[in-house]
Amino acid sequence: MNKLAVAGLALAGLALAGAARAQDDGIRVELNKLEPVGAACRAYLVFENRTGTAFDPFKLDPVMFDTDGVIAKRVAVAAGPLPAGKTSVKLFDIDGVSCGGIRRVLLNSVMACDTGGDSQPDCTAMTAPSSRTEATFIK
């Protein structure tokens, strides 16, 4: 293998390692459970703040889609404070929607995230949704 090919492979490896670190340094939000509660559906979200920064507030804008792909509900979820390097569970009720009727949740945006500093990060870009439920959670 020539020196140019070796250098190219090394750069590709560094790029992949950097991408993996960037993802590890973000905020993971897992839709862990959907549970019926009266006429509502209770959603359990697991937050992993893998950054060195605390966020308060941290507010999500999730949109729920039904089994036909039609928007069923849009809510605002206040998930903060999110301490640096901490995993936490937040739950919220989705009134008027059955859990079985939710097939997809879109993280439309992170509406608010404050680090207390002068410049604020793009929290929507650094947030990675996932799901353990039958409903997918995407961005």
TrEMBL record:
Signal sequence interval, chain numbering: 1-22
Keyword set, alphabetical order: Signal
Protein name: Tat pathway signal sequence domain protein
